[in-house]
Amino acid sequence: MALRDKQGRPLVAVTGMGVVTSLGQGKDATWAALTAGKSGIHRINRFPTDGLRTTIAGTIDFIDVEPFCAPMLSERLAMLAAEEAIGQSGLASSEFPGALFIAVPPVEMEWPQREALAKASGQTGEITYKDLLKAAATGEFKKWHDLFIFGTVADRVADRFGTKGSPISLSTACSSGATAIQLGVEAIRRGETDAALCIGTDGSVNPESLIRFSLLSALSTQNENPEGASKPFSKNRDGFVMGEGGAALVLENAEAAMARGATILGYVLGCGEKGDNFHRTRSSPDGSPAIAAIRQALDDAGVAPDEIDYINAHGTSTPENDKMEAMSCTAVFGERMASLPISSNKSMIGHTLTAAGAVEAVMSLLTIATGRIPPTINYQVPDPAIPLDVVPNVARDGNVKYVLSNSFGFGGQNTCLVFGAEPKGA
Amino acid sequence: MRDVVITGIGIVSCTGEGLDVHLAALSGAPKTDAETFAPYAVHPVTAPEWDRQIPKKSDQRQMEAWQKLGCYAAGLALDSAGAKEDAELKNRMQLIVAAGGGERDYAVDGQILTGLRSAENPGVFLNEHLMGDLRPTLFLAQLSNLLAGNISIVHGVTGGSRTFMGEESSGVDAIRIAKERIAAGQDDIFLVGGAYNAERPDVLLIYEMGGFLWKKPYAPVLSRPADGGGMILGSAACFLVLESREHAQARGAEPLAVLSGVASGRSRRKPGSVEQALHGLSKQLDGKPDVVISGATGVKGITEEELAALKDIAPGAPVHASGDVIGHTMEAQAPAGVALAAGLIANGKASDALVTSIGHWRGEGAMRVTKA
User: Fold this and answer.
1) Choosing among B139, B147, B268, which should be mutated to test the A contact, i.e. which has the most A CBs within 10 A?
2) What percent of chain B has pLDDT over 90?
3) What are the chain B neighbours of A192 within 8 Å (beta carbons)?
4) A 225-284 → B contacts, CB under 8 A
C-alpha cells in the first residue's frame, strides 16, 4: 500500500477518536443515538430563561465542573474526548508523541465572577470597573487570571497528555474544529511531527453567549418542541440551536502508525479553505468561497467529485446557510447532487460551534467505518429550493468510501475536509 | 526548505505609525497615560487617521478599537509589501491573526452589576438587561476571529484565514506556522500579525487579578524587576507580509530581511525554567545575534532569567525591550519584535537579530531575523 499521496506527501491516518455531545459520553453513545435519529436538544435548565427568545439548547448536563463556566466545561469536554481518542490509538496517554491543535471557544470572565468582584469591592453605590479593579488588587482572585485567559485550556490539555511543543489554540468561528484537523494534517505532511492531537471543544452555553447569538437573530425560536427545533434543509427552519460538545482525533503519519501496528480508522485525505469578504456574518450570495473550499479539499485529496459517497453537511438550520450550502454543493457536484446523500448531525446535537468541525469529522469517519449514514431529522416540510437527498429522518445503509465534511463560519470562514476509508495513493 | 523573507511591515502604537518612527523610538520613553485608568498606566495608541486604511465609515463603525488597530496595521503592511492593489495576490494570500477577544460595553456591565445587587430575581434581571441593553453587533467586535474577518472585508485578503489565541504565544506560533508552511512549499505568501487594545478596563482587570500590572511611575521594562516588577499594557497592532524568496523575486518585491527561524515551547514554569527554555530555543535558531529585541514583560523573575540567558546567547549585543517602544501588547508583541528587528536589519544597523517573546504567564518563543 502506498503510504504517500499523489503529491508525494505522507498520508495522514486517523488512529483514535473521542466524542462527547448532548447525546452522551463517548463516540459509541453519540453514534448510537445519532443513527437512531435521537435529538439531544432540550429545554435549558442551567440558568433561568425568562425573557429570552430562545430557551432550548443541546447543553451537556451530565458533566459537572467547578467553578461552572465555559472554559472549565470546555476543558473537561476536551479532556474526555482526548482520553477516549488517545486510548483508542494505543499511544502513551501521558507522553503523547506529537503536537496539540485545539479549537477552543473565546473565553472571558463571566457574570458570576463579575458579581463576586463587585461584592468584594464593598461598593454600595453604582458599580463601575474601578470597583472591580479594586477588588482584583486584593490578590484574592488570582486563580481567575489563569482561568480566563485564552491559552489556559490548551495548556492544561497539553499538561495532561504531555503533547510536544507549543500547543496551538485557535478559532475560525464555526469551522474551528475542522481547522484544528487541518493544522494537524499540514504538520504531519511537512514531516514536522508523526502524530497530532486535534481537538474541538465548546461548553459555552451561558446566558450572555446565547443572547449574543439571539440578538443577531441566528437562533431558532421554536421552543415548544425542543427536539424538533433544529431542522436543517427544511422549509420551516428558522435558525440554529446551540449545542455543546467535544471531539478529539489522533492523526498520525500512516507509515509510522502502521510501523507500530496501530489500527487505522480512516484517512484525512484533503483539506480546503477559502476566505469570504462579502459580509461579517453572511456568505457571498454566489457561494463562490464555499465552492472554492470544497473544490480545494477535493483537489488536495486527489478525489474526484464523482467519488464522494456522502456529504456531512455544515447544515446549521439557518435559512441562509442551508440554502448557500445546497447551492455550493450543487455547483461542485452537478446533477449528481440530487441523489448524493447529504445530512446534518446538527439536526440532533445542535450546533456545537467551536467543536462542530471535529465532532462531525468523527461522525464522518464512523459513517465510513460502519456503512451507516446518519439522518437529518425533523425533515417534515421539504424546501423546494433545496432539492437534495438529506437522508430524511431515518438512517440508512450505504457503501461510503469517501466523505466530504463542510464547515462554514462567521467572519468568512470556509473549511472543508475529505475523509476516506482507503488512501488515494500514488 | 525555502527561504522565508519579510517584504511588508505595518505597525501602529503609542509611538505613532510606520516602522521608521518605531526604530527612532528604540532609545527613548514611550508615551504613557497614567491618568485614565489610575493607578494603572497604559501606553495609549496615537490614533491614526482611520480613513487612510479603512475607507468606509460603515466598516469603522462595525469594529471596536482592537479590530480597527489590526485592520489599519494590516493595510500598512500590504502597502509596504506592494500588495495592496494586487487583487489576484490578495485572493490567494493566507492570513494568520493572533488575537484575544474584543471590548465589552462597560457602562452596560456596570449598570447590570449595580442592578443585580438588589434584583428580586437576578437571573431574570440579567436576561432582561442583556437582551435589552447589548448592542446586537457588539458580538462581532468581540469574536476573536473577526479581526481576520474584518481584514478580509476591508482589504480583500481571502486566501484562507486562521486565528490563533493564547496571549503572547499565539503571536509567536502564528509566525512559526506561517514560516513553516512557506518553507515547506504549502503556501507562498502570508499576512501575519496581531492587535491589542490596552485601553480597556476588562483586560486590566484580568491582569490585575493575576498581580501582573506595574502601578508605579513609568520605568523602563528591564529595570522594573528590581522594584517589584510588572507590565504596562500598550495599545498597538503589527502585521507582517511573509513570503518565499522566490515568490518575492517573481513579483519584484524587495525583502527587508529573512525570517531565519522561529522556535517556541512551553516550559512548566519554575525558577530557572525560562532561562533554560531560552537557551534551548536559541540553540534551535543557531544564530550569532548582534542585536536583541526582547519582548520582556518586566514581570519579576522571568525578566531577570531572560536577561541572564541573553548574556550567554548574545554576549555584547544591545538588548532593546519592545515594551519600551509600544508597551506590552500580548498577541502583538512577537510580530512587533520581528518588525523592529527587520527594520534594524534593513537599515544596516544589524545583521543577525534575536527576537524574544517570553509570555507573562506561560509560553516561550524566540525568532531569528537576518540580512536579506
Assistant:
1) B139
2) 99
3) 180
4) 273-281
Q: Do B202 and A172 touch (CB under 8 A)?
A: no
Please report where in the chains the cell 450543487 appears, as a residue.
A330
Whether residue A3 has pLDDT greater than 90: no
Number of domains in chain A: 2
Q: Are B313 and B289 in contact (CB under 8 A)?
A: yes
**Does A262 share its domain with A129?**
no
Last residue of a domain, one of A145, A165, A194: A145
Whichever domain contains A197, its CATH number is 3.40.47.10
- Where in the sequence is the domain holding A131, given as residue range(s)? 112-145
Q: What is the pLDDT of residues B283-342, one digit of tens each?
A: 999 999 999 999 999 999 999 999 999 999 999 999 999 999 999 999 999 999 999 999
Please give the model's pTM, rounded to 2 decimal places: 0.98
Angle between helices A319-333 and A288-301 (to 10 degrees): 50
CB contact under 8 A, B205 and A136: yes
Domain-embedded: residue A4: no
Secondary structure, 3-state, A234-289: ECCCCCECEECEEEEEEEEEHHHHHHCCCCCCEEEEEEEECCCCCCCCCCCCCCHH
Q: Is A351 a catalytic residue?
A: yes
Residues A75 and A133 in one domain: no
Q: By CA distance, what is A300's nearest residue in B?
A: B186
Within this chain, do residues A19 and A126 fall inside the same structural domain, yes or no?
A: no
Give the closest-approach CA distance of A32 to chain B in angstroms: 33
Residue pairs between chains A and B whose CB atoms are closer than 8 Å: 246
User: Which tens digits make up the pLDDT trace of A135-145?
Assistant: 999 999 999 99
Q: A133 and A181 share a domain?
A: no
Share of chain A above pLDDT 90, in %: 97
